[in-house]
Amino acid sequence: MVPGLVCLDRWLDEDEQRRLVAEIDAAPWSSQLKRRVQHYGHRYDYGNRSVGGAPAPPLPAWAVALARRLHEDGHFDRPPDQVIVNEYLPGQGISAHVDRVPSFGPVVASVSLLSACVMEFTHPEDGTRVPVSLDVGSLCVMTGPARFTWRHSIPARKTDPGPNGRVPRGRRVSVTLRTTL
After folding, report:
1. Looking at residue 158, which CATH number applies to its domain?
2. What residue numbers bound the domain in which 74 lies?
3. Distance of CA 92 to the CA centre of its chain
């Protein structure tokens, strides 16, 4: 396992997930990347690899509720103030990275909605790879080495390995919550 990584299955029940996706889809999406995104609290500038630039809308009520719950559950020392929503269609992924250290605090949390996927964690020194299944409604929290050392990615593919063969991906929406520095 990856030190500092905690994944909680069924962190959101089906009704909570349905309501959350409906509220997310009711807001406008940006198509500036290969995948659609929404930024709240603070906009992440992918070109400059920093927080800032054009202002972002404030956290909507659904994001404030998630941030409060993460703080109350003890995952953050204060409620997250920055949210990125990413939409991944089958075949889309995100390259290996560590969330920007000078921009974001010691905890990164992500909630998976609509479809499961496998996230790969890679150790930069020895190349160890750890596949982690992110199920629908799960919460993934990265702290310590999982946050600052290990790189994480979602391979761009239409299926993931499963216990009984390949598992097709559907539309996946992830909600990433962080604190800004």
Report:
1. 2.60.120.1520
2. 5-180
3. 14
What is the pairing mode between strands 117-122 and 129-134?
antiparallel
Token pair 């500092």 in the structure block, residue: 4
Radius of gyration of the chain (CA): 15
Whether the CB-CB separation of 129 and 120 falls below 8 Å is answered with yes
User: Which class for 46: exposed (0-12), middle (13-18), buried (19 or more C-beta within 10 A)?
Assistant: exposed
Only one residue has tokens 């520095």, namely 181
The pLDDT of residue 34 is 85
Token pair for 42: 């603070």
Give Cα separations from 16 to 21, 79, 123 (angstroms). 9, 19, 34
Residue type, 139: L
Instruction: Give the residue carrying structure tokens 């598992």.
Output: 167
Number of domains in the chain: 1
Write down the residue that tokens 């919460």 correspond to.
Answer: 139
Instruction: From first to last of the 181 residues of the chain, give the pLDDT tens digit.
Output: 899 999 999 999 999 999 999 999 999 999 887 899 999 998 776 666 667 777 799 999 999 999 999 999 999 999 999 999 999 999 999 999 999 888 899 999 999 999 999 999 999 999 999 999 999 999 999 999 999 999 999 999 999 998 899 999 999 999 999 999 8
Would you state the structure tokens that stand for residue 131, as one six-digit string?
């596949």
